[in-house]
Amino acid sequence: MSPVSPKSLSPADRAPIRVAMLGCGTVGSEVARLLTEQAGELAARAGAPVELVGIAVRRPDKHPELPAELLTDDAAALVARDDVDVVVELVGGIDPVRSWLLTALNAGKSVVTANKALLAEYSAELFEASDASGADLYFEAAVAGAIPLLRPLRESLAGDRITRVMGIVNGTTNYILSAMDATGAGYAETLDEASRLGYAEADPTADVDGYDAASKAAILASLAFHSRVTAKDVHREGIADVTASDLAAARTLGRTVKLLAICERVTADDGTESVSARVHPVMIPRSHQLAGVGGAFNAVYVEADAAGELMFYGQGAGGAPTASAVLGDLVAVARNQVLGGRGPRESAHAALPVRPMGQTPTRYHVSLDVADRAGVLAQVAQAFAAHGVSIAAVRQRDANDTASLVVVTHLAPDAALQSTVDEIAKLDVVHDVVSVMRVEGEDA
Ligand code: NDP
Ligand code: HSE
Fold first, then answer.
1. CB of 145 shorter than 6 A to ligand 2
2. Does one domain contain both 112 and 221?
3. Which of 139, 207, 219, 220 to mutate to test the pocket of ligand 2 (most atoms within 8 A of CB)?
4. 203 and 129: one domain?
5. pTM of full prediction above 0.85
6. pLDDT tens digits, residue range 331-357?
7. Domain region containing 78
8. CA distances from 412 to 253, 266, 320, 360, 444 (A)
């Protein structure tokens, strides 16, 4: 680490903060551009020049736009160099990135990363290394791209008690669901269109199967509830099974479908607390603030005891928006190095257990095609009652000898709702289970 400059020096005269950047793709190329174009302003804000001293990529020959003398394909060697103060990691994935960042932190080099997959599994290990050496670990870009969300959770709301974080944290799936809602098209053809337009990646699995959102939910729950929550603790369902019928069923009831990350602090009757973290499609009322979030945008709703309800909205992905968050972290690290301070450490003191999804209270919307004859409604209602699930509303529409039946429940343990649906599907009078979707954003 470079020696701390005397505080009386002007920023330009101070020893530079020397940055190694790992990865120079969609996000990294924008970070490199902004570091160059805004060098003077960044130095003034950081308190010292921020100088890019090396860039590691997989294929240096594919980057004629970058200064050749900065490029290397040996990220491990770049991280180990004596003239590196800060490592900015924009490669993604777990291995070998994990070992590079541990090496950096163990050597007292601060780390800025956008890597949600790594943080959702290994943040405890990374924080331990950062604590041992006193280096900073910042990761604002890992959740919701440009939106300042993690710093409010880690710092601005550190004096409050957060009870819920709920939001749209994946732009690709939000784009697909918004398009399905607008056009009435099915999932597969909308995914094809999203790929053609460049919204979905060549391999969209991490997005559409909910892995990306689950990693983000783990990070959000950990920060909000001062506990360790990993991606494995997050109940995850993607959008591949969302059909045009689900969207149509939602529309007739004044609702729409969104893939939400929902992190809650749950207090049991005996006062014990736990955390629930889940990612799955939900129906929400069209009047809900999250329903109006279209395309690839992200929005996150935070509820805290004293602050009340807060909403964070903006671009959750893309090179320049994500680079904005990375540079904000880089300025924070540089300021800490100039002034001799440290950023926030891991805050996991609450150590709340994670409540299994089956015990988490949810509400279901169930749309059925049933035989239109006496006693059918009673049979369906009996199945709900047998599992202790209370019905909030029933709506029936007749068509020839079949009736379309929509049941919306009150809150019940998710496992009881699942079992109810399994039993209903087996009833002779039920011709088809058209749509089953959890409901959020309205009174239970
Ligand atoms: P890209 O795939 O566009 O870029 C990855 C970069 O990493 C490339 O420059 C690649 O080199 C380099 N790289 C890959 N393997 C190695 C290696 N073994 N050694 C050195 N360099 C390597 O990724 P993104 O920019 O999209 O994403 C980067 C990170 O930011 C990820 O963690 C991602 O989850 C996160 N993020 C991305 C967002 C986005 O909108 N794209 C939004 C928020 C977070 P080469 O160029 O030679 O192939
Ligand atoms: N693939 C992610 C998304 C990128 O679609 O939101 C941002 O993390």
1. yes
2. no
3. 207
4. no
5. yes
6. 999 999 999 999 999 999 999 999 999
7. 6-145+320-339
8. 21, 14, 43, 8, 10
